[in-house]
Fold this protein.
Amino acid sequence: MHEMGIAQQLVQIALESIPKEIENPKVEKVNLRIGKLAAVVEHSLTFCFEIITKETPLETARLNIDVVPVMVHCKSCDKTWEVIGPVFKCPFCEDGDVEMLTGREIEIISLELAE
Amino acid sequence: MEINIQKRVLEANETEADINRKFFKEQNVFVLNMMSSPGSGKTELLCKSLKALMPKIRVGVIVGDICTRNDADRLEITGAKVTQINTDQFGGDCHLSASLILASAKELGCFDLDLLIVENIGNLVCPAEFDIGEDAKAVLLSVTEGEDKPLKYPLMFRVADVAILNKIDLLPYLDFDAKLAKDNMKQVHPHLPVFEISAKTGEGFEPWLEWLAMKVFEKTGK
Ligand SMILES: Nc1nc2c(ncn2[C@@H]2O[C@H](COP(=O)(O)OP(=O)(O)OP(=O)(O)O)[C@@H](O)[C@H]2O)c(=O)[nH]1
Ligand SMILES: [Mg+2]
Ligand SMILES: [Zn+2]
């Protein structure tokens, strides 16, 4: 539902990153990393991105999303593991204090330009 | 040709949130971000909580809705300072951003407050993603919404510092399993404090108000 806002930020960062000296830049791919637990719906993001990039260097760009798994660490028993379902209980010591290491990222990694 | 960027897309909001955190620290006010689905009882809970907390704890409220001033009007009756944000002027956003919060907090004036409560837009997804520089996040779940919500919206329950199970006065009329709902919250967030209350009857308010007063004291010394 807030994918439009995320798409706008994304486009702003992407456009600012294209060096001025490149004439008629054409971006083919935008590489992103999105955590599995981030509140981003991929097809909504793609839809919003397409709407707002008309007549910009990003018009023909494809969003290439690398999904980041949810990795957690138990501060009580010092174990690290990947969370598959929405269960964050420590399976090793049961009552541990669990922190998320990855899985919330919404990051733009790079742009790939047509030669 | 590849252009390397490596940036967080919501960096702008995160920067604003840091500015807010600094401002709230200077003002020595504790900020609670209250979130839930539409209609879980945020405004009702606040109305009752404000009546109990004030004047000992001085409370201000920023209330976010897509449209209308209804919630602000309900809250103002308690005597608290209240300001309403309507996001339809900003594209009908489904959450409050950090920059909107700072503008409202300044408009409200925080120097004479101990506690600032932000009633976020009714939505279990988007507000969880946007830091507003708060000290704690609270999530409400009402017993009419189903026990599985923590598992369906794990981010919200993961980022929350406290959860409230509301409308327990309705339990006798429903099949809702309160223990299962709490267990589901603890699956997502093992040490999450959960308070079972009825914003309508006032049942269960004591421990919730104590928790809140303690948090305010820990930060502000007031
Ligand atoms: N029976 C019962 N009804 C409640 C309780 N708390 C709230 N309600 C009712 O539920 C409805 C919604 O409550 P609100 O306080 O407006 O909910 P909200 O979360 O602020 O809603 P939005 O701001 O629209 O997202 C109102 O009719 C309240 O009177 C409760 O504990 N028990
Ligand atoms: Mg409300
Ligand atoms: Zn453990």
User: Anything to note?
Assistant: The longest strand of chain B covers residues 2-8. The domain at 11-220 of chain B is CATH 3.40.50.300 (Rossmann fold). Residues 64 and 87 of chain B are 7 Å apart (CA to CA). Chain B is about 35% helix and 20% strand.
